[in-house]
Specification:
Largest interface: A-B, 28 and 21 residues
Distance between the termini of chain B: 12 Å
CATH class of chain A: Alpha Beta
Number of helices of chain A: 3
Distance between the termini of chain A: 11 Å
Number of helices of chain B: 5
Oligomer: heterodimer
CATH class of chain B: Alpha Beta
Largest sheet of chain B: 5 strands, parallel
CATH topology of chain A: Chemotaxis protein chec
Radius of gyration of chain B: 13 Å
Strand content of chain B: 15-25%
Strand order of the largest sheet of chain B: 2-1-3-4-5
Shape of chain A: globular
Low-confidence stretches of chain B: none
Number of domains of chain A: 1
Order of helices and strands of chain B: EHEHEHEHEH
Number of strands of chain A: 7
Helix content of chain A: 25-40%
CATH architecture of chain B: 3-Layer(aba) Sandwich
């Protein structure tokens, strides 16, 4: 539950603070059409805990996100859309790791890989899956999976 | 008064956001240079005099920790203020960077007014 709540909270915070998009918990996560989640980004981390976060969202959301972050009202090039989504997950993982570190572990340290765009979100069948967060950014669905070795 | 600043980040998005934030923070007249990593930053430092360097930590080729370390041992840049702007919010990372002498550590996402307050403190002190 600690992982689940932390992941949802951080996702909503980052969409609001970083992307200027209203975020809320998705009350109907089962209704998300996974085929619409056509942009996926993933990041690995090692250190006090080792794991991965996958985030998937519609391409339209990624384009809107990039426009908001860059302050552009024009169509944003795909490279910048990809970079904006990568940076969003970079901020998510940076805020999440201290939140899921073992309590009172102020010495927790991590090495965080650069997030990367992947063709499709890996199927969440990993035994290390500890949280699946489904939120809405404005009206678009966002689904994120958190994997932590030895914590499931 | 105009200032010269160097933004060091491998993400073009972050560099664009930072430049926009500098305008919002009242530094629209500043001359802003960009570098994608520590190696490029050192080249820029060789060629220009900067009032402040705004640097990420995690970057390919030469990261922010290596950049600040290299700056501190070079007398030409040893006193140039560095503000770290990173998504890495662990206390251990913050302690390492502050131990290297960086002036401030800003967590992403940040507000323009936070950046304004930090830069004013640094730049007004350096020009007084």
């Amino acid at each position: 539950m600690q992982f689940q709540k932390a992941l949802e909270r951080v996702l909503i915070e980052v969409f609001e603070l970083h992307a200027f998009m209203f975020g809320a918990q998705n009350e109907s996560p089962d209704s998300v059409d996974e085929s619409a989640l056509d942009m996926c980004v993933t990041v690995n981390f090692t250190g006090s805990q080792t794991g991965r976060i996958d985030l998937a969202c519609p391409a339209d959301l990624a384009a809107e996100l990039a426009g908001n972050v860059l302050g552009s009202f024009d169509a944003v090039p795909q490279d910048d859309i990809d970079d904006s989504l990568v940076e969003l997950l970079n901020v998510v993982v940076g805020r999440l790791l201290p939140a899921i570190a073992h309590s009172a572990d102020n010495a927790a340290s991590y090495e965080i890989d650069r997030p990367r765009i992947v063709a499709s979100a890996p199927v969440p069948s990993d035994a290390n899956l500890v949280a699946c967060a489904s939120i809405l950014a404005e009206t678009w669905p966002v689904v994120a999976h958190l994997y932590v070795e030895g914590a499931a | 008064m105009t200032f010269t600043m160097l933004i060091v980040d491998d993400s073009r998005t972050v560099r664009a956001v930072l430049k926009r934030s500098l305008v919002m923070a009242g530094f629209g007249s500043a001359t802003v240079h960009e570098a994608e990593n520590g190696t490029e930053a050192l080249k820029a430092l060789d060629a220009n005099k900067f009032d402040v360097v705004l640097s990420d930590i995690h970057m390919p080729e030469m990261d922010g920790t290596q950049l600040v370390t290299a700056m501190r041992i070079d007398p030409r840049f040893a006193e140039t203020p560095v503000v770290v702007i990173s998504s890495d919010t662990t206390e251990s990372r913050r302690d390492i960077m502050l131990g290297l002498g960086v002036k401030s550590f800003v967590h992403k996402p940040f507000r323009a007014e936070d950046l304004r307050d930090i830069l004013r403190g640094i730049l007004e002190g350096s020009r007084s």
